[in-house]
Amino acid sequence: MVFLNVKKLNVEYYTKNNSVHAVQDISFQLDQRDTIGIVGESGSGKSTLAMAILQLIPKNTGKVTGKIEMKSKRLLDLTPSEIREVRWVDIAAVFQKSMNALSPVHRVGNQLSDIYRLHEKNIPHKMLKQRIFQLLDMVNLPSHVYKAYPHELSGGMMQRVSIALGLMHNPKLLILDEATTALDVVTQTQILKELMELEEKMGLTRIMITHDLSIVASSCKKVAVMYSGQIVESGFVKDVLYNPLHPYTKSLIKSVPSLKGENRKITAIKGSIPDLSKPIEGCVFAARCPYAKEVCFQSAPENSELENNRAVKCHFVKGGEFVWEEGKQTIV
Amino acid sequence: MANYIQKRIITGILIIVVSIVLNFTLIKLSPGDPIRVLSGQDSPSPQMQAELTAKYGLDQSVFMQFINYVGNLAKGDLGVSILSNQPVLKMIMERIGPTLLLALTTAIIALIIGTALGIYCARYRGSRFDNIVSGSSYIFDSMPNFWLGMMLIMIFSSSLGWLPTSGMVDLRTNYTGFNYYLDVFKHWLLPATTIVLVTVPYYFRIARSSIIQVMSEDFITTLRATGMSESRIFNKYVFKNAILPTITVFGINLAYIVTGVAIVEIVFSWPGMGSFMLDAIHRRDYPLLMGIYLLLSISVAIMMIIVDVIYAYLDPRILYKER
């Protein structure tokens, strides 16, 4: 059964003189216990997508249209008080820059308890404290964190606090927005491992937003590659990352330095993300694509759906293969 | 915390000591001859000059004068005013009450009104109310307080005749009890309005901008995502984070409480420290001036200690850095 169904989701931000179409016609589906990594460079709309699912885009600055269905709830049609009920119980999140995730002038324990009480109003004080200690213990934090202020903790500890905060009410869906990006690799691996264990226990569905392909490769089942507000390629990690079809996915993978093998030149993708305040005629990646032909600038490619739940948005992907010159398969 | 307070108090005492030395030096360096003022003549006779110089200890070396001064201070003796021949401490004590009455009440009223307006306008940023209040805050901020005072006198006293023009009590009557307080209140109303109108913009702008800044912090997004209501986020989290700059400004304002309202006091002939101090400067009444300045530096030092302690209590990061 489909757990989360995002269909034709559009997010537009309004600025003084124009509007920016930050998320364009995004559709994807997740089953329960699925994990999906959403990758892309800065400005591709990943975080906006997360904010849209969390209903955190302020009404006066942006407009969200389309459909987000979780089980049978249509999230976009909920009233403000219904949204508050859904938050943290059904959908929780761990945000980037967890050093600033909590108020600097209130104690960690105080804030955790305060948030816990939002969705379990009548819990007695003693039980609440016990529950918070339990949560801290779950993410391998010592109990003195309860009485600490955020500035007294390290980045890794604050990250764990944020994760404890996110898992507090056993949410069904957890969104991690660049949650481990600011950490060193050792702490990152540790936290990811812990997170995956907890996930197993709690039956979480996870959306992982990151620009780090290695995190996706090691911790997700599915992946969606975003470029300038669109998903250009999606599917299972083992298909997409090991046999990329879209030129953007290919260049993204090539721009990651490798530790093994001979020294190989890292190829950056030339140019930058297009201006989203103007409509783009053809393929969004055409301007930077090494394979772009005339057709790419003239019409937007169809989303071709391949086997194994894979979808690619490129003119040259036909029948599951990247065919650039007629009749000849090009391997990058 | 105790350690922190101790450190602040030591710093405060050092500030007072340094300001005693500076006071003395600056007054010694300032131009003008007190002897000439004392004698009441442009060119007093040498005999008279010598007599006066000896009487006030001005014939001793500057260093000895300083030692004498500090010695007297330790005994609680601030000296005797050159002009009125009264103990300085007594004169200050007579004058400080009205000043505190005017300055303290207006500081607190301005703090409350300004902060409340700032909070409201920050929450409804861009609304018509916000635009009107923000706009007029600049007008009142750039308005000279003596001018505003005179305008208020013209409107409410001269033209409408509702309120008295000057002083703290009506000298022609002899009110007691409730009527006395009512009379003081009537006299207080106009100078207080003047001070409040020109100080509210400070608190308003500080409160408004720091709330807007805190509202855009990451932890506010986190709290929203947890399903916390806007009013709870605001009352518990935004408020405590945003109030810190206001406290700083309030502290600075309180530090200058004794002289901060001097001009308004003069405009309204309020019997406080303001006109008193200007008189002392004009007439080169050294003992009196030094007494006033000493009082000022002590009040600045004490206020600094109090504000620092409040600050540390509200923002735990301050104690952390001190460690």
From TrEMBL, chain A:
Which SMART domains has this protein been placed in?
AAA
* Keyword terms: ATP-binding, Cell inner membrane, Cell membrane, Membrane, Nucleotide-binding, Translocase, Transport
Topological category with respect to the lipid bilayer: Peripheral membrane protein
Q: Using the record for this protein, list the coiled-coil segments as residue ranges, or answer none.
A: none
Asked whether the keyword S-adenosyl-L-methionine is assigned, the reply is no
**Subcellular localization:** Cell membrane
Q: Which SUPFAM superfamilies match?
A: P-loop containing nucleoside triphosphate hydrolases
Q: Which domain of life is it from?
A: Bacteria
Write out the GO MF terms.
ATP binding
Its primary localisation, in coarse terms, equals membrane
Please report the stretch or stretches of sequence annotated as the ABC transporter domain. Answer: 6-253
Q: Which Pfam families does this entry report, sorted A to Z?
A: ABC_tran, oligo_HPY
Question: Matching InterPro entries, A to Z?
Answer: AAA+_ATPase (IPR003593), ABC_Ni/Peptide_Import (IPR050388), ABC_transporter-like_ATP-bd (IPR003439), ABC_transporter-like_CS (IPR017871), Oligopep_ABC_C (IPR013563), P-loop_NTPase (IPR027417)
What family, per the record? Belongs to the ABC transporter superfamily.
| Entry protein name | ABC transporter ATP-binding protein
UniProtKB/TrEMBL annotation, chain B:
Q: Which family does it belong to?
A: Belongs to the binding-protein-dependent transport system permease family.
Localization: Cell membrane
Keyword tags? Cell membrane, Membrane, Transmembrane, Transmembrane helix, Transport
Q: Which PROSITE patterns match?
A: ABC_TM1
Question: What's its membrane topology?
Answer: Multi-pass membrane protein
Q: This chain belongs to which protein, by name? A: Peptide transporter
Q: Which organism is it from?
A: Oceanobacillus neutriphilus
Pfam family name, one = BPD_transp_1
Primary site of residence: membrane
- Which positions fall inside the ABC transmembrane type-1 domain? 96-311
Transmembrane spans = 9-27, 100-122, 143-165, 185-204, 242-270, 290-314
